[in-house]
Amino acid sequence: YTGLRLDAGGINSFEILKVTPKTKNLHLVPIDLTCENLTPIRKSAEAFPIEFDASDYGKIVVTGIEYKENEFEILYKKDGFTFFDPSFDVYDKNGSLIPVSVYEVNVNYDNNSYVMHCKGKAAPGQIQSIECLKSDVKLDFDREITINIR
User: Fold this and answer.
1) Is the separation of the CB atoms in 116 and 60 below 8 Å?
2) Across the strands, what pairs with 32?
3) 3-state secondary structure of 143
4) For 32-66, b where at least 16 C-beta lie within 10 A, e where not — what string?
5) How does DSSP classify residue 2?
6) Got the DSSP string for 103-127?
């Protein structure tokens, strides 16, 4: 984020979750935001888990789909660095897009899992494939900075 300057005076605040009290330092790696490609990857939703490469640095792992009244839930985890929350599209057996009107994500910090609530009708077994985007975002390791924790 261009407003967060590590080479200037000022105070920046971070909330770091799941860090042990023994942590001595953090490594901050700038993100190169010249991401130009978002590649859709579609996979079968007949068996779980389903792994999607979200970037060169991390994956989205779909662990299941649960069907509810007027919505369905996509259960997933993140493995490694993913720049943004996934944007899932789901398809029926004919390859037709199943419409979704609203997405809402809940995070379970205790087990590092996510639930994406998708407002739309889908009968159990109707979702035959799922699509996720892969970005070409790059981490700029040449400008990595180490911060000592006091």
Assistant:
1) no
2) 138
3) helix
4) eeeeeeeeeeeeebeeeebebbbbeeebbbbeebe
5) T
6) EEEEEETTTTEEEEEEES---TT--
Residue 110 phi, psi dihedral angles, 5° rounding? -70, -35
Model confidence, pTM? 0.78
Q: What tokens appear for 47 in the block?
A: 């068996």
Q: Which two tokens stand for residue 4?
A: 């967060």
The residue whose two tokens read 């599209």 is 89
The per-residue pLDDT string of the chain (150 residues; one tens digit each, 9 = 90 and over) reads 345 555 555 555 666 767 788 888 888 888 876 666 788 999 999 999 999 998 888 999 999 999 988 899 999 999 988 877 788 999 999 999 999 887 888 998 888 899 999 998 888 989 999 999 888 888 888 888 888 877
